[in-house]
Design goal:
Layout: E1 4-10, H1 17-25, E2 32-38, H2 45-55, E3 59-63, H3 70-80, E4 85-88, E5 94-95, H4 99-110, E6 114-117, E7 119-123, E8 126-130, E9 164-167, H5 169-172, H6 187-197, E10 201-204, E11 209-212, H7 229-242, H8 247-267, H9 274-290, H10 293-302, H11 305-325
Parallel strand pairs: 1-2, 1-4, 2-3, 6-10, 7-11
Antiparallel strand pairs: 4-9, 5-11, 6-9, 7-8
Helix pairs in contact: 1-2, 6-7, 7-8, 8-9, 8-10, 8-11, 9-11
């Protein structure tokens, strides 16, 4: 029986894939499988993965004939996985030796639906530790209770699928899959659903995942239209949270996070291509109109002045355009 399935999407990461695969070899076990999904790479990544199929025990190679993005590649891996537990890694990140056996031991000991972990961020030669924004460690808790408070960073803001491990029952209950086709912010609807619909989770302080930040080919570094998928991602968060039995309690957090991300992108609008910048403004205005207006007003009134001003400018422009049209 396979105990752990590790799902690793790759797309044009020939520079980093050898380090990723080397770290996986330092985490092998007879009951582990490594599902390596090549999302239609056009560089040397497929050749690197072909070697891994021979050299990495438990490797399973899947190649997409069309690029579908990270969310779709992860879903391919989930559908193929046979393990009692599942976890993720991105194709340009890496692991400390022996990390996965420790992570597996943690969730088996705690007996919960999922476990979240800290990680190390790597930017060039700099390293920094990033912690799950939740104080209690190695204690099984209700995931819904970790969503709030609305005005502080919480577990749903720590939206890294690879910073944790997940029991197969979450797959069987339809909780673990990602929204097909999202190119960016794919972890946002996923982490919210995970916390709303799972029954138990815990946080552990393991430091074994190294997240490579600032990679030139990463979509977070590219100012093209795919960046705007955050709007579709957060629209889904708002819509699903609005249908929750505790919507009145949870919506302020969802709206506040959406507004914070939107204000961040608007504050860096010069890095987008001109046509994409215009689209960002118009899509942001439409998104603000779709939000529950009473909650939105309260959120804007409680935000810092700079971010609130950016959002209000977009909101006013949209309302002005509607008045002229009328």
């Amino acid at each position: 029986m396979v105990k752990l399935s590790v799902i690793v999407p790759f797309y044009n990461v020939q520079q980093y894939a050898p380090d990723t695969l080397k770290s996986l070899r330092a985490n092998t076990r007879e009951d582990f499988e490594f599902i390596l999904v090549d999302d239609c790479s056009t560089d040397g990544t497929p050749d690197i993965l072909a070697r891994a199929e021979r050299e990495l025990p438990g490797a399973v190679i899947i190649r997409h004939e069309q690029n579908g993005g990270l969310a779709t590649a992860r879903n391919t891996g989930i559908d193929k996985a046979r393990g009692e537990y599942l976890t993720f890694l991105d194709g340009d990140d890496w692991l400390a030796p022996g990390y996965f056996p420790q992570l597996l031991s943690a969730i088996e000991e705690l007996g919960c639906d999922f476990v979240r972990t800290d990680h190390v961020q790597s930017t060039g030669r700099a390293r920094s530790v990033h912690r799950v924004p939740h104080g209690r460690r190695r204690t099984v808790l209700n995931p819904r209770e970790a969503i709030l408070p609305a005005d502080r960073s919480t577990s749903v803001d720590y939206a890294y699928a690879w910073a944790g491990i997940y029991h197969r029952r979450l797959v069987d209950r339809g909780i673990l899959h990602f929204t097909h086709g999202l190119r960016t912010a794919e972890d946002r609807p996923w982490i919210w659903k995970l916390h709303r619909e799972s029954e138990s989770f815990a946080v552990v302080g393991l430091l074994g995942v190294y997240y490579r930040r600032g990679v030139a080919s990463s979509l977070t570094q590219i100012g093209d239209v795919r960046q705007l998928d955050f709007i579709r991602a957060f629209d889904q968060v708002i819509q699903e949270t609005a249908g929750d039995p505790e919507a009145d309690k949870l919506l302020p957090k969802a709206v506040r996070t959406y507004c914070a991300i939107m204000a961040h992108h608007l504050g860096q609008i010069e890095r987008f291509e001109p046509a994409v910048a215009r689209k960002l403004r118009s899509m942001s205005a439409a998104a603000l109109k779709r939000m529950p207006q009473d909650v939105l007003t309260e959120v804007m009134d409680s935000m810092d002045a700079q971010r609130a001003a950016r959002l209000r400018r977009v909101r006013r422009r949209s309302m002005g355009a509607r008045t002229v049209t009328a």
